[in-house]
Amino acid sequence: MFRTDPDGVIRYYNLHDRQPLLTARYALTIAWRTGDGREREKVYGFVTIAEMDRKIRELFGRRVKKGYRLLYSFMRDRPAAAIPDSTLATQTMRAISG
């Protein structure tokens, strides 16, 4: 997302689920910066996809109210961390057994 301030400065705001966490099944990362400035980020962890969805809607809604517009969007069928439990268990057992 982005917006242009009255003085011409462009502000960017990014939401993505590409960064997995060890402490939560689902993760959401937000990153923001002004113009060419240094990017800052915050990572949220969630137990359920419904919790993550609520947070996305909350954050997205706040930015829209502040005048941000969508720059681009990419959607996948399920979050990056949504590996089936059976696959995860198989991978873990392989890693442990060497």
What does this structure look like?
Helices cover about 30% and strands about 25% of the residues. With about 100 residues, the protein is of the alpha+beta class. The protein has one domain (about 1-95). The longest helix has 17 residues, at about 50-65. The radius of gyration is 17 Å and the shape is elongated. The N and C termini lie far apart (about 45 Å). The relative contact order is 0.19. The mean pLDDT is about 85.
Could you give a short account of the major beta sheet? 4 strands, antiparallel
Overall mean confidence score, pLDDT: 83
Number of strands: 4
Side by side, the strands of the main sheet go: 1-2-3-4
Question: Total number of helical segments?
Answer: 2
Order of helices and strands: EEEEHH
Outline the low-pLDDT stretches: none
Instruction: Tell me the number of structural domains.
Output: 1
End-to-end span in angstroms? 44 Å
Radius of gyration: 17 Å
Tell me roughly what share of residues is in helical segments. 25-40%
> Helix- and strand-based class?
alpha+beta
Shape: elongated
Give the amount of beta strand, in percent: 25-35%
Provide a short characterization of the protein structure.
With 98 residues, the chain is of the alpha+beta class. The protein is built from two helices and four strands, in the order ββββαα. The protein has one domain.
